[in-house]
Design a protein that fits this description.
The radius of gyration is 25 Å and the shape is globular. Helix 5 crosses helix 14, helix 9 runs antiparallel to helix 12 and helix 9 crosses helix 13. The protein folds into four domains: 62 residues, ADC-like domains (N-terminal domain of TfIIb, Single Sheet), CATH 2.20.25; 205 residues, Rossmann fold, CATH 3.40.50.740; 205 residues, Dimethylsulfoxide Reductase, domain 2; 135 residues, Barwin-like endoglucanases (Beta Barrel). The strands form seven sheets. The protein has a seven-stranded mixed beta sheet. The chain has a six-stranded mixed β-barrel with strand order 22-26-23-25-24-27. A four-stranded antiparallel beta sheet has the order 1-2-3-4. The chain has 26 helices and 27 strands. The chain is α/β, with parallel strands linked by helices and 746 residues long. It starts with 11 loop residues before the first strand and ends with a strand. The longest helix has 19 residues. The chain binds iron/sulfur cluster. Iron/sulfur cluster binds next to helix 1.
């Protein structure tokens, strides 16, 4: 039952001397899922945060991370003034300076490096905060004039691959339909309850990933949806599923192809949709024939009967939706897994139908702001210099595995300056954490912008800029519609000011104006936001005044109505107007246009000799209830729930290695080792262990070599660079090998 909105249409009001501001969480810390917040504040202090019942997306619900926001905002360890390094790198000696001095230093170093090595020698690297993606690109392209912008982790293995592939194969981003396109949600008469939801490599009850909330699934289940869950771990959803497919990590493409095989060979596909709207069906059918359930049982470790049962259940359910996690991208055959998964909703006619997988394009306008904003301003000569551009034409950003090598070797040309915004690659997503550190240490100048001192900032920064949290900034939640998430446009509304912190938007605009005044013509952030909102016909203030989120008209079956293509004709906005089951463009650039399975580079099958020494499959990266990747380790209330890093081990495996629940254990392979606490659980296969990622310890000494203990429990010490897939996207974060042993007194 929804709570009542006590102040409909208002974005800020007073109650008993306390100010209440309606806003959303759309940037660090915590998440970027745009849940609605009511923030209680007085005298520039946040007193508490509650869920906003007027946000249909979250209906008043919040998870621990947002409830803890007051502790984050006013934490004594917040960075509050720009800091300039005065000792050696990693020594932890800093001098507070003014923003003007900080900007002056950046300009001086930028000009020097640009003059000596060219603008392409500057690399801009960002984290996952949604608000910074478009403006960070703008700073790189228009401000620094460099083509090298990316996230610093192997294979760009987060949402980037799917954001690249879906616009090619079907024109736009696509998501499971849980009624989120409508403000009246589950009551909307156009929406249908999915008969089946296939939850694949995803635990949305814990992670609430990327604007998809776990509670929506529970609401669907209450209304009759049945689940198929594909996961190496028995999650809560897996325990509620009709079928749980306990997959060997990294073999998703094989499973999806086997399901396609069953669906096609048993005639369970949607013949009318396939004939009228898809391209490449016969080729897909031939490819899928290679993946029989018998063969795929051996690859995935899932009994063939279960594969067949799941394929039939998904295909016979009308409608059926698929919700999938980034585990797809965090395996080397990720692009193939994405192609195969899309083929499942394509051949079963579950695309853009109520309760299926919907194309999240509103009918009124395309995208705000453009993806990779400012890229068109680069000269063609500079565009050609993008690191990895020749090797990986599919990747529009710098390719991080090649970038890391360029930072270390100066080839194909020197990289001399790193701009790292809201990202902590040494502790979080950087593969081979020590190599990541070495690459940053090789830079002449490193700027880190963040909320807290992190291992990355401590180890590598010459200059640290203090960044505002989600409650300290004016911004818009309006992310590239064409390529990314569904969702209503909303404003993020500033509640308090902490120290001299500035929002990412302020930092980039102020610095951009100094670097290239013509490229940043806006007087202030509000003017820049107004510019970005032009297509909506609303200014920032008008949008904010309306209080509630602004939903845009949404229609199903847009491909039938001419609502997807730029020319207004029926079909899809793809190279031939069809939904692509086989991708001609991929073939043109030397990639396989069809999905296929590629064994992980290190596994019991691809490297049997190595696997004798490292016999367990290592998977990583499942999300925590109270922590978002490497964030929130400073917050006592959240650390109480997650005091230490955890590795899940099957009871038989634990017994074999003499490990008890709660023991500290080493997880190690040929690259390195880290220690975590054993959680002995039958939820995981006895041949697999799962280790948490993102661990560092703000309570430990900051200066090197400790760097807040970042190399003690960091599972990415075992994950390499250089094993990206053939497209340059996706890397085997979730499907390596390891061995385990109890930590002795050593
Ligand atoms: S999912 Fe949780 S952390 Fe993310 S915005 Fe929503 S309440 Fe906040």
């Amino acid at each position: 039952m929804r709570k009542t909105d006590t102040h409909p249409g208002e974005w800020r009001w007073e109650e008993d001397g306390v100010t209440i501001t309606r806003t959303i969480a759309w940037s660090g810390p915590g998440c970027h899922s745009q849940c609605g917040l009511l923030v209680y504040s007085k005298d520039n202090r946040v007193l508490k945060v509650e869920g906003d019942p007027a946000t249909p997306y979250s209906e008043g619900r919040l998870c621990l991370r947002c409830l803890a926001l007051p502790k984050v905002v006013h934490h004594p360890d917040r960075l509050t003034r720009p800091l300039k390094r005065v000792g050696q790198r990693g020594e932890g000696k800093w001098e507070q300076i003014t923003w003007d001095e900080a900007y002056g230093l950046i300009i001086e170093k930028t000009r020097k490096i640009q003059a000596q090595y060219g603008p392409e020698s500057i690399a801009v690297m960002m984290g996952t905060g949604r608000n910074i993606w478009h403006i960070g690109a703008k700073l790189a392209y228009t401000g620094f004039g460099t083509p090298n912008v990316c996230m610093l982790f192997s294979g760009l293995s987060c949402y980037a691959p799917r954001l690249r592939v879906m616009p090619i194969t079907q024109g736009f981003f696509c998501v499971a339909d849980c009624s989120q396109m409508f403000p009246d949600r589950f009551d909307n008469p156009a929406w249908k309850v999915p008969e089946c939801v296939l939850v694949w490599g995803n635990n949305p009850l814990v992670s609430n990933p990327d604007s998809f909330m776990g509670w929506w699934l529970v609401e669907c289940m209450k209304r009759g949806s049945k689940l198929i869950v594909v996961d190496p771990r028995r999650t809560w959803l897996a325990t509620k599923a009709e079928t749980w497919l306990q997959i060997r990590p990294g073999t998703d493409a094989a499973l999806a192809l086997a399901m396609i095989n069953v669906i096609i060979e048993e005639g369970l596909y949607d013949k009318e949709f396939v004939e009228k709207w898809t391209f490449g069906f016969d080729k897909l059918r031939e490819r899928a024939r290679q993946y029989t359930p018998d063969k795929v049982e051996k690859i995935t470790w899932i009994p063939k009967e279960k594969i067949i049962e799941a394929a039939r259940f998904y295909a016979n359910s009308k409608p059926a939706a698929i919700q999938w996690g980034v585990g797809f991208e965090q395996a080397n055959s990720g692009i193939s897994s994405i192609l195969a998964l899309q083929a499942l909703w394509g051949i079963t006619g579950n695309l853009d139908v109520p309760g299926g997988n919907i194309i999240n394009k509103p009918t009124t306008f395309r995208e705000i702001p453009p993806p990779l904003w400012g890229r068109q301003e680069l000269s063609s000569e500079l565009k050609k210099k993008r690191i990895g551009g020749k090797e990986y034409p599919l990747v529009p950003m710098a390719q991080p595995d090649i970038l890391i090598d360029a930072m270390l070797t100066g080839k194909p040309y020197p990289i001399k300056m790193a701009w790292i915004q809201s990202s902590n690659p040494i502790a979080c997503m950087g593969a081979d954490s020590k190599k990541t550190l070495q690459a940053l240490e090789a830079m002449d100048f490193v700027v880190v912008a963040d909320l807290f001192m992190t291992p990355t900032a401590m180890a590598a920064a010459d200059l640290i800029l203090p960044v505002s949290s989600a409650l300290e900034r004016d911004a818009i939640r309006a992310e590239c519609y064409e390529t990314a998430w569904w969702g209503p446009i909303r404003t993020v509304n500033k509640v308090v000011q902490v120290g001299e912190c500035k929002s990412d938007e302020e930092i980039i605009l102020e610095l951009g104006k100094r670097l290239n005044p013509e490229g940043f013509p806006w007087k202030n952030v509000e003017e820049m936001l107004d510019f970005l909102l032009q297509a909506t016909g609303k200014s920032f203030k008008e949008l904010r005044e309306q209080g509630a989120p602004r939903y845009f008209p949404f229609e199903y079956r847009k491909y039938e109505k001419g609502l997807l293509r730029a020319d207004g004709k029926p079909g899809f906005e793809t190279e031939n107007g069809k939904f692509l089951l086989s991708v001609p463009y991929f073939e043109k650039i030397g990639l396989d246009g069809l999905p296929y399975f590629d064994e992980p580079p290190e596994s019991p099958f691809s490297t049997p000799e190595l696997a004798k020494e490292y016999p367990l499959v290592l998977t990583t990266g499942a999300r925590h209830w109270g922590l978002f990747s490497s964030e929130q380790r400073q917050i006592p209330e959240l650390r109480e729930i997650h005091p230490n890093p955890i590795t899940e081990i099957h009871p038989e495996t634990a017994e074999k290695y003499g490990i008890k629940d709660g023991d500290w254990i080493w997880i190690e392979n040929m690259r390195g080792k880290c220690k975590q606490i054993a959680k002995v659980t039958a939820s995981i296969d006895k041949r697999v262990v799962h280790a948490q990622h993102g661990w560092w310890f703000p309570e430990k000494p900051g200066p090197a070599p400790s760097l807040f203990g970042v190399f003690e429990s960091n599972i990415n010490l075992l994950v390499p660079y250089g094993q990206q897939g053939p497209s340059g996207y996706c890397a085997p974060y979730r499907c390596g090998i390891c061995r385990i042993r109890k930590v002795q007194e050593e």
